[in-house]
Amino acid sequence: MEQNAQTNTGNPAGPVKRRDAGATREKLLKAGIAEFCANGYGGARTARIAAKARCNIRMLYHYFGSKEALYLAALERVYGEIRERESALDLLRLDPVEGVTALVEFTFDHMASHEDFVQLVVVENIQRGRHLKRSKAVPQATLPLVEAIADLLRRGADSGLLRKGIDPIQLYVSILSLSYTHLSNRHTLSITYRQDLGDPAWLTARRDHVRDMVLSYVRA
Prior knowledge:
- It is built from 10 helices and 2 strands, in the order ββαααααααααα.
- The protein has helices at residues 21-43, 46-53, 57-64, 67-87, 96-113, 115-126, 137-159, 168-184, 186-193, 200-218, and strands spanning 2-4, 17-19.
- Helix 4 (67-87) packs across helix 6 (115-126).
């Protein structure tokens, strides 16, 4: 966003425009996410990103340096959002069964409402994770989640509410898979099984199914 500053007495030509660096960077990042989701990494074009952000393409290179750096920033943004919202669940304070339930329902709902996360993860897996390997932020932000799940499982096992010996990463990958595959493969699955996986009633039933399946597994 461009904001008008007051007229500078040293500039007789009139008001000068002062660039809002944060807003410009944010516009470019959002436009980048949309472009990478729509066209993948290889098909994305910086010119289209700049046009969508209504910025000069020089601004893209000024703030991000390269297409690859912008793409990595897009990945870190979508991963950062889910990690931030997971932390708000405050799993360490929840009863073990309530905590697992909250994590399952949150993960399912976040995947359903954040198509950009689903699409960018698909794009990066096509790239074999070569860009995400450069990120320090994503693995670091994930550690508290793993620790919180491990704490839930430990407290649940000690109280007799949950099974013993459940691996926290195995559990989370299962929750993620159950909440994700019907979205990432929606079109092919809908054709194969002649069932619209985007139908709201089917998605509601799917959410209940995923929650009940995970709880059935973790309960003692």
